[in-house]
Amino acid sequence: MVLYAKDIVEPEFLSMRPQTTLLEAAKVMADRHHGFVLVTSAEGRPIGIVTEWDILAKVVAEGRDPAQVRLEELMTRSLVYVEANEGIDRVAQIMADKGIRRVLVQKDGKVIGVIRAQTIARRMRDYLDSISAQIARAQLPLF
Q1: Second-level CATH architecture of 5-138
Q2: Which of 16, 53, 83, 136 could share a disulfide with 20, CB 3.0–4.6 Å?
Q3: pTM of the prediction?
Q4: Is the model's pLDDT at 134 over the cut of 80?
Q5: Measured distance CA(33)–CA(30) in Å, rounded
Q6: What is the pLDDT of residues 97-109, one digit of tens each?
Q7: How far apart are CA 51 and CA 116, in angstroms?
Q8: Which residue ranges make up each domain of the chain?
Q9: Are 76 and 88 contacting, i.e. CB atoms less than 8 angstroms apart?
């Protein structure tokens, strides 16, 4: 069984407009237990991402006022996309090569969700457990 990006994509994610203050975004992120927010254009197209690390490194550590900082000031503009039919081994390799923990999944040019490194690790563990169980069953005597 091969796992594809579409099999583990998380269709629910936070998205906010670039003018949103960090304070507003952080409150929603904390309330919903999300470690990132996608910054989207007026048309709903992703144009950047702000992560919990961005908040720590670029605001908290610098003593900036989160009520005065807008997402557009913090966001990373270079987003990484994978196709829905990409194998998760390839998705994991892209994430490792680029040193990122999240990728956007697209189908027919439209973003359908996000994959987090945490999700890949969890699904790979389940997958390996399943394979191990199949191997163990195959080694049992027939009688």
Answers
A1: Roll (3.10)
A2: 16
A3: 0.81
A4: no
A5: 5
A6: 999 999 999 999 8
A7: 12
A8: 5-138
A9: no
Contact 40, 25 (CB under 8 A): no
Please name the residue that has the structure tokens 């996000």: 114
pLDDT tens per residue, range 64-91:
999 999 999 999 999 999 999 999 889 9
List the Cα angle 122/125/128 in 5-degree steps: 150
**CB atoms near residue 131 (< 10 Å):** 11
The pLDDT confidence band at residue 142, using thresholds 50, 70 and 90, is low
DSSP string, 48-91: EEEEHHHHIIIIITTT--TTT-BHHHH-B----EEETTSBHHHH
CB contact at 8 A, 22 and 59: yes
State which amino acid sits at residue 129.
D
